[in-house]
Structures
1.
Amino acid sequence: MNARAQKEVDVRDVVAGYSAEVDILRGISLNVMSREIVCILGPNGCGKSTLLKTVAGFLRPRSGSVHIRDEDVSQIPVHRKVRSGTIGFVPQTDNVFGSLTTWENLALGGQFMSKTDCAQRIEELCNTYPVLTRKLNSPAASLSGGERQVLSLARALMPRPRVLLLDEPSAGLSPKTLAEVFEAISATRDKEGISVLMVEQNAMEALRISDRAYVLSVGTVALENKASVLMNSPEMRELYLGGRPH
Ligand SMILES: Nc1ncnc2c1ncn2[C@@H]1O[C@H](COP(=O)(O)OP(=O)(O)OP(=O)(O)O)[C@@H](O)[C@H]1O
């Protein structure tokens, strides 16, 4: 990060939940600076995906705010943010259309672009992810789990979003494929110059490509620090990973 880095995502004191009676997020604040990869970690059910859904706009905060750049987007629904290129959202597994080809899946992400722009953007993204070039005319159902995840990532990038939101990009992947998907995420940040906020279960692998991370516990932030610090933090290891640093 350089001195001119600016805040891309600014979540302030967010309280949110699925029913009026229960708060899942109990006053969460976090931020993502430009070109940062920030990871949200924590045990099952602590509210990681709920937080991502609230930043995306699937869920509206009961109180608090979500700013992207300087705009309060708390009340703006997800489809409007995707269309305006404010965010790209990559949900968990099984999110490509199996009967459509790789090219057609990508074109869906470019449905609000002109045909020429859309075709150019597909070519650009295929240069970043050569695996897609090789499978451009194959039905997405014939792609491996990792390839589908890269396709899903590339589709979200079609409208050139400023912020990419990823919900457990490594879910269901083998260790080798998982490493390739994380590599693709890291390459994306470098090449596209965007900010990434991702939820992950594979804490150590995610921390390796992250700049900072927030560790949640029952809807609140329990720890926040640079990824390199958290990777070696005994507190983090004991609380969430079940071991001390080697
Ligand atoms: N659509 C929903 N309706 C009602 N409650 C929900 C819904 N989605 C999640 N919850 C509840 O919200 C709480 C937090 O869930 P969330 O999915 O945010 O946790 P998480 O940290 O992402 O968990 P995991 O690591 O297991 O995916 C859980 O108690 C869950 O049961």
2.
Amino acid sequence: METAQKNYIFDFDSTLTSVEALDVLAEITLANNPKKEEIINEIQEITNLGVDGEISFTESLEKRIKLLNAHQSNLEELIEKLRQQLSSSIESNKEFFEKFSDDIYVVSCGFKEFIDPIVKDYNIPSNRVYANTFLFDEDGYIIGFDEENPLSQHNGKIQCLKDMNLDGEIQVIGDGYSDYVTRKAGVADKFFAFTENVEREKAVKKADHVTPNLDEFLFVNDLPRNISYPKNRIKILLLENIHSDAFDRLADDGFSVEILSHSLSEDDLIEKIKDIHVLGIRSKTQVTPKVIKAAKKLLTIGAFCIGTKQIDLETCKEHGIVVFNAPYSNTRSVVELAIGEIIMLMRSVFPRSTEIHNGQWQKTAKGSREVRGKKLGIVGYGNIGKQLSVLAEAMGMNVYYYDIEDRLALGNAQKCSSLEELLSISDVVSLHVDDNAANRNFFGKAQFDQMKDGALLINLARGFVVDIDALKVALESKKVAGAAIDVYPQEPRANGAFETPLQGLNNVILTPHVGGSTEEAQRDIADFVPNKIMAYVNSGNTVDAVNFPNIRLPRQTNAHRFLHIHKNVPGIMAKVNKVLAKYELNVTGQYLSTDSKVGYVIVDVDKEYNKKVTSALKKIENTIKFRILY
Ligand SMILES: NC(=O)c1ccc[n+]([C@@H]2O[C@H](COP(=O)([O-])OP(=O)(O)OC[C@H]3O[C@@H](n4cnc5c(N)ncnc54)[C@H](O)[C@@H]3O)[C@@H](O)[C@H]2O)c1
Ligand SMILES: O=C(O)CC[C@@H](O)C(=O)O
């Protein structure tokens, strides 16, 4: 079947390059001019007025050339600078410019003197560049332009395209007025608003299609491209006030990111998740089997925290959804809060402070003790427990710990063989067990009874670990002299009203699950988790995934990468290889990692292959998910 001829008409400034060339020329010519900033601002204003169609293009050109005061010798430097500032999606898609060279034109209101040498590198010869030309005086100064050229006139591109008299469909790709008017005038069949460098409201409104980069344009036209799926089509939803650095990092990589300050209910999440490829949450969002079932496009979930029990990890795995977390980023923050709270509780600082807030002066040493020499009992000697052990010891505390696993003591910390033993000797008990469901109501009446009279309790782990009613009784009876609680059996999804039976009790510090909420921790998490997400989405790496076989993949060079996630049943690898053999693929690398439930096989193949292989791989029985990356 013969395919219809298409002509691709590219604008130059802010489309092929990320800048306006005359602005760059101004930077060069005005380098030593004391009024440089003023003049450059003026030039930019004039450029924008012209691009938006507020003043005639000829007028804008005349004014700018006068202000520029440029010389022929400046052009060489300009060309060098422009070469460094090509739009990145143009640079990464050279193959398209090579394969479709006969159908590509540059039609620009810029100047051939600098456009020709730049686009030549992209296989576009001078005779397919339609642009203005400068006029020079005998000393080589630019004094004007060829006024006969239609491109120097208002609506010049319309006239130029008419004169070009091209056969077939005409697609214009550009960012401004001169581009979109060609569509209205009927000389272009489609206008693509290119917004990689600048997003002009009017251009976006008039566009048949908004293309945030060349990848999107090539994808919708099914043209050869450097990337399998445009990143702007990958939708990321970040909930629960995740640090804005995460948004910046993911958006800078080209993804479409939406950020919400609160968590979503199951129903709202089910609705929202249908189109989402990547979900980012903290501790409040429950990712239930119903949510996962609705998440048809979901590739990965980032828990921007330590805990992952809010996510049904097994169901995620069965659906080929890879989950990451940040296991260490907020550890130090929790430890520092625990240390602060131990001191505050030991000194009864909060009751003393409340008295003064209520207008009372109560200077007393009663119920106020140093931490030095006191016994700290750490329950759960993991990442947080261990770090707390070291800092507490540095303050002169004697550290004891209890863990269900065999954990090596740090410093002079002493291991207890049972929880009872630890509780019976500790002046302060600090809970740092993990968020395992088995730890529900782990600490109740029996444990309070086993504590020393007047000991203190700290819970910065999970709310369901402590029986709050039993704690209330222990505090009221003075069995426990004080407590610091950061986590609660039920926590609200968003900021607002909150009630707990512990409100109003003496020497009880209540914080709203902020143990890990420091600027430093949140920034670190906003670096760590997006990196994991990008490594998976962009290359298939699952290193540090919490529910998936971990695999570190080599860099993919000059190859297409097939990612095949399947149920781990006998014979599946043989079937995958049979398909690859049937279509005679040249396999350049194959990697496999499995656990008892799923298998994850990655195959790197030569770029040229029979495309039918992909549907054959998808059709293999027990396939869960299949993706191609390039
Ligand atoms: N408040 C906050 O903002 C905040 C911030 C970060 C972490 N946390 C929570 O802190 C807790 C500890 O985090 P971590 O990074 O140290 O986890 P971790 O997995 O490194 O350590 C947990 C330790 O607890 C032990 N453990 C589990 N159940 C136990 C039990 N019943 N008795 C004794 N030991 C037990 C484990 O063997 C492990 O050594 C987690 O619950 C985490 O969700 C809270
Ligand atoms: O930031 C959060 O919402 C959770 C903090 C903490 O409980 C964690 O699991 O890291």
